Amino acid sequence: MTRPAAAGAAPRTARGIAASAGRPVVVGEEGAGEAVRFASVPALREGLGMVGYLADDGLAGVVFLADRLGKPVLVEGPAGTGKTELAKSVARLTGARLIRLQCYEGLDESKALYEWNYKKQLLRIQVENAAPDDESAGRWNEIEDDIFSEEFLLERPLLEAIRASEPVVLLIDEVDRVEVETEALLLEVLSDYQVSIPELGTVVATQIPLVFLTSNNTRELSEALKRRCLYLHLDYPSLERERAIVLAKVPDVTEQLADQVARIVRSLRALELKKHPSISETLDWARTLVLLGIESVDEATARETLHLLLKYRTDIELAAKELAAATARDSA
Amino acid sequence: MLEVLTGFVSELRRAGLPVSVTEAADAAEAVRHIPLEDRQAVKYALGATLVKSSAHWRAFETAFEVYFSMRGPQFALEEDSLGPAGARGERAGEQETGSLGREAMRGAGEGGGGDLVSPEELAAMLYRALQNGDTGMLAAVARLAVALFAGMESGRPVGGTYYLYRTLRNLDLDGVLQRLLGAARAGSGGDFAAPAPAGASDGTGGYLEGILQRDAESARLTPLEERLLADEYRFRIAQLQREIEAEIRRRLVADRGAEALAKSLRRPLPEDVDFMHASRDEIAQMRKAIHPLARKLQARLARKRRHLRRGALDFRSTMRHSLSFGGVPAEPRFRHPKPTKPEIFVVADVSGSVAAFARFTMHLVYSIASQFSKVRSFVFVDGIDEVTSIFERSETVGEAVHRVNLEADVIWIDGHSDYGHALSVFWQRWGKEVGPKTTVLVLGDARSNYHSSESWVMRELSERARRVYWLNPEPKAYWGSGDSIVDKYAPFCDGVYECRTLRQLESFVEHLV
Question: Would you call B395 and A332 a contact, using CB atoms and an 8 Å cutoff?
Answer without folding.
Answer: no
